[in-house]
Every structure is written in structure tokens, then in C-alpha cells.
Amino acid sequence: MKRVPRHIGIIPDGNRRWASKQGMAKEDGYHHGILPGMELYHICRNLGIQELTFYGFTVDNTKRPSKQRIAFSDACVKAVELLSKENAELLVLGNTKSAMFPKELLPYTSRHIFGEGGIKINFLVNYSYQWDLGFHNGRFGPTMGSCDVSRVDLVIRWGGRRRLSGFLPVQSVYADIYVIEDNWPDFTPQHIYQALSWYEKQDVTLGG
Question: What is the pLDDT of residues 47-62, one digit of tens each?
Fold first, then answer.
């Protein structure tokens, strides 16, 4: 490829819809999203992508039934633990002051280099744009929670929805958005190659 994005944002949506189609309980879909994430990580690392941000779960997601909340929280913990065994510079971002933030992930809330490092991996857990921008009592705070995260070039969303759902609003301000109709657990390598081929054809001017 002549041009690859430096930083890709991943919105792995459609886990519950996938589970329902398989005749499973909705909460069972999250576990099936872990291995696709690892496969995508390896593809992006081999392609020379410098930074990758996964949307784990949002503060709003924690309003879901407790079985679902426990399931997606556990899936995020498992995914981060697996990534920590790879070559990556790993950072977990989210509202750690909330009881909904998994305590197992607290050690990852400052960036650590695992293995040979090389690719930055950001994992958004119990994240909201209000938390990120320090929004409180009608005012924005002086610093961003995601200040260590670079501008996003390409956002890829599975599950057919055409919205950012609060994903890194500052970093995604100039991002191209590619939507995949398939639900996240149905991930195939072709999804990422198609997205990158599409991105290569975009006229990226950053307003210039």
C-alpha cells in the first residue's frame, strides 16, 4: 500500500446482535469478540500501523443489564491481559474513579512497554467524552484524559452503525470513517484490508 493510516480507531460493535442471531444470550457475544481483536492487532502490527485504539466500553454502556455489564467488562480485562503478552506499548483510558472500572486494569492506566513495544495500543474502558474533556458543572477541565493519544486518521466501525458514539471526539475530528455491516465477532482479515484500500483512495487534506 502506498499510504497507510498512522493511527486507527476500532469500534467493535454488534456483539449482542451477533449473539442473538446465534441463538445465544446477548452477553455471550462479548467473549467472541476477543480473538478478532487479537487477530486485528497482529495484522496492524505487521502492516506498520503505529497506533491502534480499541473502544472497550463506555460509561453509558454500564446502564445495561448486569449480566451484560459483567460480560463486557470481563472481555476487556481478558483482551488487555492478552495484549500485555504481545509486543505493544499499552495504555488503558477511562474513568477509574467509578466502581464500574475493572480494578484488574488499574495497573495499565499509565503506558507500559511490553515485549519489544513498537505499536501503541490504547484501550478505552469505562470511557466517556465528558470524562475525557473534564466536563463538570457545565465547564470543561484544563486537561484531557486522553492527552497521550494522537490524532486518529481512520475510524473503522463494525455492526453497520454510522456514528462515533463519543469515540475520542478531539482526536477523531479529521478522521475518515469506514463502516462495516458485519458484526464484530464475524471479523475477517478482509475487513481491515478493504478499509485500508478505501482509505488509500481518500483525499486527505486536513482542511488544506
Answer: 999 999 999 999 999 9
Residue type, position 119, single letter? I
Cα–Cα distances (Å) from 20 to 15, 163, 190, in that order, read: 9, 22, 24
Signed CA dihedral, 125, 145, 149, 205: sign only: positive
Q: What is the pLDDT of residues 115-137, one digit of tens each?
A: 999 999 999 999 999 999 999 88
Q: What share of the chain is helix, strand, coil (3-state, %, to 5)?
A: 35, 20, 45
Widest distance between CA atoms in the chain: 50
Secondary structure (3-state) at 188? coil
Q: The whole model's pTM is what?
A: 0.95
Residues in CB range of 104: below 8 A, 6 or more apart: 77, 81
Q: C-alpha 163: how far from its chain's center?
A: 14
